[in-house]
Amino acid sequence: MAGGGDVVRSRAQARGRRRRRQATPLPLDVVLAIAARSDAATLVRCAATCADVRSRVADDPAFGGRLRLRRTDRFVLPLLRGHLVERRAGRREESGLYLVDTTTAGAPRLRRVPGAVPSGAAGEPMRLESVTLRDGLLLLRMAETEAWTYRLRRELRVRDLATGRSLTLPPEPEFPGHGTALVVDGAAHWLCENCVVKLNVRSARATVTTLPASFPGETWASRLLAMSSDGNLMVLVMDGKKISAWEQSKHTLIWKKQPWVVIEVEEILRFNNVVGLIEKQPYSPLGVRLIWFAERSGAVLIGTGYHGFFWLDLQSKKIVRWLDPQTTSKFYATYCPIETDLSSWVPTFSSTI
Question: Is 0.85 topped by the overall pTM?
């Protein structure tokens, strides 16, 4: 009997030691203060623990004021809020620049950007050639044909969307780059025929790196400059069957000799069974092309002619959204993505992508 009593006593002592070793839980305010200064992935994992945390993160204005998320080597897809498009309608007040707002579930909303496209000398809106938006500043490259001389006059203008003020900039020099420059960490990158030009804005120093010999020379292939989540420069190429990526090491600046496959076109079209839509319209050309890359969210916009647009998450290599042709048929031209900065992003924990 004495031995049995010793066993019971030792078990009770062990339970007591375990209780003493358990850490006292932190108050919720302390946990949220730590999460507010972590990174986006840590904040989302923290919010996944219970409904109280999610409610405080999404709805408490005081938490939003304390939010100071750090940048990491991961894209944050919800930073993408939509993109800019141009509409040309019969009525002048319906034409112009529009925001495709994709922050809500379901079909995206079109929001007109008032006064974005100014009138030229003849009183008609100038023709847009390219549009770039960054941190609330809209850069417009426009053109018009002079009435008497038939000469093409170009204009470069920057507009502050918050105040509505605009400023005409001096004419820019001609540059044989392919598409819009990719701006990352204070450096602008242009894709040329067989090389990439990098301009460091602060030092005003330009460097040129030659693409590998395996890089396709076909001019018909759709190409796009992009960046991996860990900071390596990439050139995406759509050859009609797949999207491939040629990657450059950010440490050695050497391009890898062979690409890796990002996604096959067949996999793209399986999203939302778009391939079934194509089979019902066999005479509509597919025309897959790369349109833009969003460097904060890591999203790539893929156009498919008459069959809508796809969003590719470059980090997961998965299609995450499809814009149907009823929406995209209203667009005359598609321009740049719209992203919010990580410092002003507050997660809502609602699935909109």
Answer: no
